[in-house]
Structure prediction request, 90 residues.
Amino acid sequence: MNVVISTLHKSIQKKTVGLSRDLRSSAVNSGWPEGLARSLSVNSSDGKVSIDYPDELRNDIHSWEYGTEFRRPNAVMRRFMNRVDSKLEG
Prediction:
């Protein structure tokens, strides 16, 4: 049983590394600053996928994702999670 759990854990880690790379690439291609894009990572816990980033960049990331009075929203994270969710459901 421990071998199965270990194998599943390794498989999930490989997928999240690939998903993190895809998310960062999507952010840069959508016009996000490269430093903010590089700070994004995809994690999986208890079968749920989430996006993590450093707390100190929260305001900058949210201003790009949700927009400000001077910048339109650029919803990279929400679009990415919608794609991941639809793949997981299908």
